[in-house]
């Protein structure tokens, strides 16, 4: 893969070589087409990124890809963990509908980025283009405004990831009954509080595994898993990858 990424903003223009590969990464990623196509399978979904189709891939999610015949070129937006707007953007799509259409407005923005003769994006342009792309994607994904009670519960989860939190604990923290809290989460995020907590734990684990400073057993405990094997099972079941695979990236 050839790329000249902007290290400050995670925006790059890339081409993929003619070989099949599979991997996961420790950041979220949106791949948008400029030319050619990329066969991509993520979770239970498979499609071609190209023409009027793009894809969003969550951190730690194993995905297979191979380029279609001929030259190809894509705009790739990498989104770091821990950014609330990015998390909501990714979680809105990645599990249920990772592939999405590129309409004419988004296509014009991509075309502007792709019309230069080099794949290098200057930092100043990357800064503004990243903001424009994120705004365009958020509006197209119709991300609902986060209710205060859900934001409060998510903040509690972030603070207490290492603890054996239950939905009842979260309900007590927010002053709602477990059933009302569950309903609020379903409306705001498309999944219940337990699933959101599982995603936050795995996101933290993916981030720590990518840093490489702690052992896998230490990371498991820091993210609320009783033992290393529990983290391994959760990553394999929800993201299709193991801690060792992420560490070997």
Q: Topology, pairings included?
A:
Elements (H helix, E strand, L loop, with lengths): L1 E2 L7 E5 L5 E3 L4 E8 L1 E6 L2 E6 L2 E5 L5 E5 L5 E7 L4 H10 L5 E3 L2 H11 L8 H19 L6 H12 L7 H8 L3 H12 L3 H19 L4 H7 L5 H12 L3 H5 L2
Antiparallel strand pairs: 1-2, 2-9, 3-8, 4-7, 4-9, 5-6, 5-8, 7-10
Helix pairs in contact: 1-3, 4-5, 4-7, 5-6, 7-9, 8-9
Terminal-residue CA separation: 15 Å
Number of domains: 2
| Spatial strand order of the main sheet | 1-2-9-4-7-10
Number of helices: 10
Helical fraction equals: 40-55%
Mean pLDDT: 86
**Shape call:** globular
The CATH superfamily label of the largest domain reads: Regulatory protein AraC
Rg value: 19 Å
The CATH architecture term of the largest domain is: Sandwich
Largest beta sheet, briefly? 6 strands, antiparallel
**Uncertain regions spanning at least 5 consecutive residues:** 1-9
Following the backbone from N to C, one meets helices and strands in this order, namely EEEEEEEEEHEHHHHHHHHH
SS elements, strand count = 10
CATH class of the largest domain: Mainly Beta
User: Which strand-content bin applies to the residues?
Assistant: 15-25%
How would you describe the overall organization of this protein?
Mean pLDDT is 86; it is low at 1-9. Helix 1 (84-93) crosses helix 3 (123-141), helix 4 crosses helix 5 and helix 7 (193-211) crosses helix 9 (228-239). The protein has two domains: 2-141, Regulatory protein AraC (Jelly Rolls, Sandwich); 148-247, Orthogonal Bundle (Arc Repressor Mutant, subunit A). With 249 residues, it is α+β, with helices and mostly antiparallel strands. Strand 5 (37-42) and strand 6 form a beta hairpin. The chain has helices at residues 84-93, 104-114, 123-141, 148-159, 167-174, 178-189, 193-211, 216-222, 228-239, 243-247; strands spanning 2-3, 11-15, 21-23, 28-35, 37-42, 45-50, 53-57, 63-67, 73-79, 99-101. It has a six-stranded antiparallel sheet. The protein has a four-stranded antiparallel sheet with strand order 3-8-5-6, with no helix packed on it. The chain contains ten helices and ten strands.
